[in-house]
Amino acid sequence: MYKLFLCLKYLRKRALAYFAMFCVAQCVFMMLVCVSVLNGFVDKIEKAAKGLFGDVVISSASLGGLAHYDEFIGDIKRDVPEVEGASPFILTFGILRVPGTDYRRTVQIAGIRLPERADVSDFEEGLFIQRGLEKPTFDPPESLLVDRLIEEHDATVAILNRVSAAELSEPDSGKRIAVWVLGVLAATLHIGSIIWVARDSARYRVPTGWHSYSSDAALWVLFCILLWIGAFPYYLARRSRELKAREETSARRRTVTAVGLAVLVLWVAAHVGTIGVLVSLDEGLREDPSLPRRITNALSYQERAIGNLRAAERIRGELQRVRKELVAADEAGDDEAVARLERHVASLERIAILPPQRRAILGLGIPGLTNRTRKGETIRTIGPAQQVVLTLIPLGRGLSYTDITPNTKSFTVIDDCSTDVSSIDSEIVYVPFETLQSLNRMSAEQAEGDANIVVTPARCSQIHVKVKAHLRGPRKLQEIARRIDAVWEQFRRTHKGAADSTVQVETWRQRQSRLVSSIEAQRTLMIIILGIVSTVAVILIFVIMYVTVVQKTRDIGVLKAVGGSSGGVAGIFLGYGAAIALVGSVAGMALGYLFVRNINPIHDWIGRTFGLVVWSRETFMFEKIPNDVGVFSAVMIVIGAVLSGVLGSLVPAILAAGKQPVEALRYE
Q: Of 24, 212, 294, 401, which is most buried, counting CB atoms within 10 Å of its CB?
């Protein structure tokens, strides 16, 4: 019990221990922020990779792809029971156009099977229209489309009203003056209070609690500069205690306390007021001047899409009727009527909801099709129930350069998908697997005159495999990938022409190894650097413990003289060092958690207020800075900090334990 009592006493009475706690808290804060953000990078890459590729990827090195893929998937499920699902995948390149405009952009076109795709990846989690549906398809209910689009339209109208109001409002010069006044007041109170502490502590010799130092005033100033909000109230308490010990009048004590508390309250109020005014000014900051026009344009497209959806049944009926008239006119040889009816069919097809095999899901964030506000809100211009045109070069089979003819098809956008990785979302369009297979010349070819004879089997670019949840560790996945590779070797021998080139079987981590290893190397480097910086806290605790042992030599002698053991004496100082590290690490962890959880609003506010933009979405790929704090990482950092405190106090504890009672009692 005496060990705990003395540890707590030293912790409360030794002012320099607060400085050590501050250093430990700062180290834990930096370590937690660094590890959390970089771990978030890896986690987001993992989620995006699994959302696009699954756990294991089987791919061909050539554009010809893999044949007999459905049979091979059956062999995988039979021979590798750890596999939960597998699905073929086609990936190629093309050009995206918007009918009636001059918009065009190169994109990646992915052919997927729905809802099978949701069984091997997290694809459904990023959908807009079908979010929350376990089995997303290319044919969602039209009522669901209408409801979602109306919600999106209402949200876009609200954004337009807010942006337009901000454009019309004049900058509030009074608020800007208030920021300067409050800022100057806070700085004046801060500097003035430090000067008062320096003069007052030097005049009245208010001790810091670390009596071996002669210049207490310098230490009080140092404490206030480093952590004014904690050191200044502590100084007021020590000042009141000194006045009481010197039998000063109660009026003087009340005056000093009241003035000090008034300064503290005014300082806090000035800072809170400054932040509040800055936030209100932030609300009035103007968007890009062209944004209202772009939002208005997006609203017109959205309203047209809602109208097309509500009239979808009527348009389909009209289209059938006009096509029948076109056939009749063609049979009658009426060229003028044929031309007129063909134009009518084309106009109806542009607003019709095309059948499921001609529908597409856009990656959210394709430039020009969506806009983002300053607050990060997404405005869909070209989205669900609108049409796009895809053009691609069919490279699925070997062709000579002279007979390559681009394939062009119109698609109705039925949904959009976000993986939260902008480098993927801004460049990809998903279409039905069989449709892309046909457009890319990867579908089966039958013999002329006999459709039952397959000359060339259908092919896919990749096969994506999902394994059971408890087997997704790196080593387990690599072992499963090796077993799948063995199945492929056996399959290739029994199915001639299954692949025209080398086939690779990789885990998602191996496929993204360059990016993942780069981020992990950065994380390791940052941890090493911060670990080296954190040795300052260990050295500081060592110095504090050593000086405490020297100062408390006589106390150590008394403890040993009354029966205290060497282990008990060492335990006091080891516990003291651990307590300093524990308190500092808990404070640092709390601050680090709050900072990481709010890192995106903090970054956005700094960027809008001071123009300092550290995070670039285009450079770092992600929509947001990762802001999740791992429990395991936080606990390990705290444990490391406490062990560092024990390490710093180990040598002084050994010195204290080795002192002889007689010599310690004689120490002056």
A: 24
